[in-house]
Design goal:
Length: 318
């Protein structure tokens, strides 16, 4: 959908009116890893998110400058764009990959099928693991398990690649998250991360309207905090496990259309929520204010879509 396309005024007003009460009284603020797991269990069980977002619980890549494209295809394109950006397309078949925050396994399956990698996907949500396993054919070299990214169960130096998309905002301690990602990476291995980030408020503090917007973005989708691109790069480098410097990029422009496209999918494909009756409609409309706030935040520079690439140092040679 073109970014200039406006929602029909009546539907837009109705959506906001219905969502307003729910929005304020059903917030899913972060309390612990259990609150994150419960939120994703619910989103997975009701099936609406999968109906609209497909296998990929992440934003799409629309090019730079963005072009109109199919919503699901944009998500597939994102995985390939991230793989190329991280130089994973140059790696040999059989490369071992840990997908941290794998959702229902969309990215894991692409990495296994299109790049011939051996992928292990982990998520805090048992329902996501169940659904990811159901969606994965037996001949695809991707498997899934429940695990906590703040305390990964794998030994040091277990994987050639560690991959993570939009999991960081759920992590209460970004420094611990950074260390765990690098700890399980083999020396010389590649870390590639894509995340929602906020502007570095050490440089430009949040103003009077940005503070309440950020509070809602945290509280509505079980986020303890957003890191800045600069801040998380510093977290990675502070581990002492990075060879050289962390490479970063800002992908806000190519991912920005996904926010309004998400709402547009509910309008042009109403059967997704109609099949669940009134509860399905309420669940769908309830997310509209947060999606609109996300579009506002990313469109004004309050939030940024950050990309991170690092190579694991061989500390035995230090």
């Amino acid at each position: 959908m073109p970014e200039s396309l406006l929602l029909p005024a009546g539907l837009f007003s109705l959506s906001l009116a219905i969502a307003a009460g729910l929005y304020l009284f059903t917030a899913r603020g972060y309390q612990s890893s259990d609150s994150v797991a419960n939120a994703y269990d619910q989103w997975t069980e009701d099936g609406i998110l999968e109906y609209y977002w497909g296998d990929h619980i992440h934003l799409g890549h629309y090019g730079n400058p963005p072009v109109t494209k199919d919503f699901i295809q944009s998500k597939i394109d994102f995985v390939h764009a991230m793989a190329r950006w991280g130089s994973l397309d140059k790696l040999a078949p059989g490369t071992t990959v840990l997908d941290v925050g794998c959702g229902i396994g969309g990215s894991s399956r692409i990495l296994a099928q299109d790049y011939n990698f051996n992928v292990t996907g982990i998520t805090i949500s048992p329902q996501q693991v169940k659904r990811a396993t159901e969606l994965t054919p037996p001949d695809v070299t991707a498997k899934f398990a429940v695990d906590d990214a703040m305390a990964l169960s794998f030994p040091d130096a277990s994987f050639d690649v560690v991959w993570s998309v939009e999991a960081g905002p759920h992590m209460p301690d970004k420094a611990v998250f950074a260390k765990e990602l690098l700890r399980v990476l083999k020396p010389g291995g590649i870390l590639v991360v894509a995340d929602w980030n906020q502007r570095d408020d050490r440089q430009v503090p949040l103003n009077f309207w940005e503070k309440p917007v950020m509070r809602q973005l945290l509280d509505q989708w079980s986020h303890p905090a957003f890191a800045s691109i600069e801040g998380f790069a510093e977290n990675l480098e502070a581990t002492g496990l990075v060879e050289g410097q962390v490479t970063t990029a800002d992908w806000t422009v190519p991912t920005l259309p996904a926010w309004l496209d998400t709402i547009w999918q509910g309008i042009i494909r109403p059967q997704g929520w109609l099949q669940y009756g009134l509860p399905g409609f309420v669940k769908s409309v309830r997310e509209v204010p947060t999606i609109l706030l996300m579009r506002l935040a990313f469109g004004t520079g309050l939030c940024r879509f950050g990309m991170f690439k690092a190579v694991r140092k061989d500390v035995t040679k230090a």
